[in-house]
Write a structure and sequence with these properties.
Number of strands of chain B: 9
Distance between the termini of chain A: 40 Å
Strand content of chain A: over 45%
Largest sheet of chain A: 7 strands, mixed
Radius of gyration of chain B: 13 Å
Oligomer: heterodimer
Helix content of chain B: under 10%
Structural class of chain A: mainly beta
Mean pLDDT of chain B: 95
Structural class of chain B: mainly beta
Distance between the termini of chain B: 28 Å
Number of helices of chain B: 0
Order of helices and strands of chain B: EEEEEEEEE
Low-confidence stretches of chain A: none
Order of helices and strands of chain A: EEEEEEEEEEE
Amino acid sequence: QVQLVQSGAEVKKPGASVKVSCKASGYTFTDYYMHWVRQAPGQGLEWMGWINPKNSGTNYAQKFQDRVTMTGDTSISTAYMELSRLRSDDTAVYYCAKGYCTGGNCYWGAFDIWGQGTMVTVSP
Amino acid sequence: QSVLTQPPSASGTPGQRVTISCSGSSSNIGSNTVNWYQQLPGTAPKLLIYSNSQRPSGVPDRFSGSKSGTSASLAISGLQSEDEADYYCATWDDSLNGQGVFGIGTKVTVL
């Protein structure tokens, strides 16, 4: 079945970097954009950006423009999200989510398959 | 603070109809389609509605969506206890070189 499996929880100190992985299976990795969304404890969802695994093109939310890097390894169908210069307010669950396409059309903002989430805690 | 405005909470008794609104602007809802997500406690969000009113395979027809101008809404008819969850609207915003935006979320309580 189609699924995204993310790497495990991380604890980082302020100023450090974190890299979260997202392994896709059950579909052709290069056929769909991969998005990253985060959710701080008790808060709503926040879109961070996308990567096109076919050509490694990216688009990041302006808020994260200078701190985030999204990459992909097509040989192992895995996407990565690296966030640098971590702060305490980066503490959140980070999700990867597959862009939704059907009937030959892709729908911006629609994500049909989500990873299980990776908890990143930033604490001194 | 989100660019999409949702009521923080909504409630109803089993069998009732509940409606959740999502208000935006010309750069997001006004020029892009709207999607809705359901998030049960401790789980990842689930796509409920895409392209304003379409349901992915497996989503019950009790869930329906609509859009008019710069606003959208999600309706849950025949409310069931398992519908108690957080609901988020989402779309694209053409400003700032295009980016995804979510509403703040609405907590639906089944009384």
